[in-house]
Amino acid sequence: MKELLLIICAYLIGSIPTALIISKRFFGIDIREYGSGNMGATNTFRVLGSKYGSIVMICDILKGMAAVALYNLLPYYFHNELERTNFMIGLGLSAVIGHVFPIWANFKGGKGVATLFGMILAIQPIIAISCVGVFLLVLFLTRYVSLSSVLAAVMLPICVLWIWNEHELMYRIFAILVATMVVITHQKNIGRILRGVESRVPILKHRDRRKARRHS
Fold first, then answer.
1. pTM of the model
2. How many CB atoms neighbour CB 168 within 10 A?
3. Nearest by Cα to 15 from 99, 96, 92, 94
4. pLDDT band at 102, cuts 50/70/90?
5. Which of 35, 55, 33 is closest to 106 using CA atoms?
6. pLDDT (tens digit per residue) in 17-71
7. What is the three-state SS of 73-141?
8. Residue 208 sits in which domain range?
9. Which of 81, 134, 179, 181 is the most exposed place for a label (fewest CB within 10 A)?
10. Residue range 109-138: average pLDDT?
11. Which of 119, 200, 203, 103 is nearest to 153 (CA)?
C-alpha cells in the first residue's frame, strides 16, 4: 500500500507542467499551441529560446530525480539492492508517465526525455553521465535537440548491456524499452531531420555566423 502511494506521488511530481507554467507566466502563451505542440524541453528551446529551454530541461530532470528519491521514505529498501532498483525504476517510470500524460495539464505533456534522464541519473549516475555526454556532443555538432535525445537514448542500452554489463534483468529490459520508446516518439523529428526542415535550437549562433562569413 505504501509503495502504491509513492508511485502515485511520483506520477504527480512528473505531472508538474514546467514548460506550461513558464510559457504562461513569462510569455502569456500555452506552449502546446506552438512549435511541435509538445510540453517539453525540446519545444521550449524551439519556441522560447535557449534560456527558458535550459530552465525547463533542468526542472524536468529534477522531476525524475525527485520521484526516484521517494524510495528513501521506505527504510526496507535500504538493505535490498535488487528490490530497491526495481522500485526506483517503477517510481521513475511513473514520473515519466506523469510528464507525458500530466493530470495538471489535461494529460497533454511532453516526450519525457529529460525526466527519463533525471531518473537514470538518480539510479545509475555513471551511465547517465555517459548518455548526457553523447547528448551534448551531438547538440554541439548539430543543434538538433531531437537527434541528441535519440542518440543519447540509444547510448543507454549500449552502456547497460555492453560497456558496464549490468546484470540486473529489469534494468536491461528498461534500457532497451527506453531507447525504443524515444526512437518511436521522435519519428516525426527524425523525418524532419532527413528532409532538412527540423528546427535547430538557438545556440552557438556566433559559430554559424563565422561559417557564413567564411563561405560568403
1. 0.85
2. 15
3. 99
4. very high
5. 33
6. 999 999 999 999 999 999 888 898 888 988 998 899 999 999 999 999 999 999 9
7. HCHHHHHCHHHHHHHHHHHHHHHHHHHHCCHHHCCCCCCCHHHHHHHHHHHCHHHHHHHHHHHHHHHHH
8. 2-214
9. 81
10. 92
11. 119
